[in-house]
Specification:
217 residues; mainly beta; Jelly Rolls; eight-stranded antiparallel β-sheet; 0% helix; globular
Length: 217
């Protein structure tokens, strides 16, 4: 095998209509290799991987390196899961090892109940390399509709970095944003930033279509 990771390049159209070149890789050596393809409507990722959680991760990552503060957004058009916990979203990562510190603002394929989750969104993180993962969840009110439901293709994610604080927003139209939550972690000045997908099933793949990835200061 010539490289540790299979690297390819793809282009996601930014919201400002300027191209953003992202590098694509499988992280954590998933049993089912991932892939990516672009067309006029966006970029489709296919990913294997047992999970992004616990003390190590397996997933597909399309990323760039970014230094300092930023405002990142993406439109997720669809998510075809391999399992109930298959998920896609925006990721901020310290490095490309499978145990890296990270923040992952995700959406699931539907609004079914998932542990502490009420709705289709979740904010997860790992604050130390090789450490345990944690999550930020919306309030659960029995009998009430989800506070942050997913309704594809009307799903937009946004992560804003200010120093060590990462604030996450959700939107049904890419214009009107609701704050989901925030998390503070001591990331280095330069991080890996992009879109990620995990199957949460080592022997199957999930598929997600992304559009309009953009990063602003």
């Amino acid at each position: 095998m010539r490289f540790l990771f299979l690297l390819t390049f793809l282009t996601l159209a930014s919201i400002s209509s300027r191209a953003v070149d992202l590098t694509q890789a499988d992280i954590g050596k998933p049993q089912m290799p991932g892939s990516g393809a672009s067309d006029k409507d966006g970029t489709t990722l296919v990913a294997g991987g047992k999970d992004v959680w616990g003390t190590s991760d397996q997933f597909r990552f399309a990323y760039l390196q970014r230094k300092g503060n930023f405002d990142a957004q993406v439109h997720i058009l669809s998510l075809q899961p391999a399992q109930l916990y298959s998920r896609a979203g925006l990721m901020v990562r310290e490095d490309l090892t499978n145990t890296s510190r990270h923040l992952f603002f995700v959406v699931f394929s539907d609004n079914q109940a998932r542990h502490n989750n009420n709705g289709g969104y979740e904010l997860q993180f790992r604050d130390t390399a090789g450490g345990k993962s944690g999550g930020v969840y919306p309030a659960i009110t029995p009998g009430a509709p989800p506070q942050f439901p997913v309704n594809y293709p009307n799903v937009w994610l946004r992560v804003v970095r200010q120093g060590n604080t990462l604030t996450c927003f959700a939107s049904p139209d890419g214009k009107n944003w609701s704050k989901y939550g925030e998390h503070t972690s001591e990331f280095p000045a330069q991080v890996y930033l992009g879109v990620a997908l995990t199957a949460h099933n080592p022997t199957a793949t999930a598929t997600a279509k992304f559009s309009g990835f953009s990063v602003k200061p």
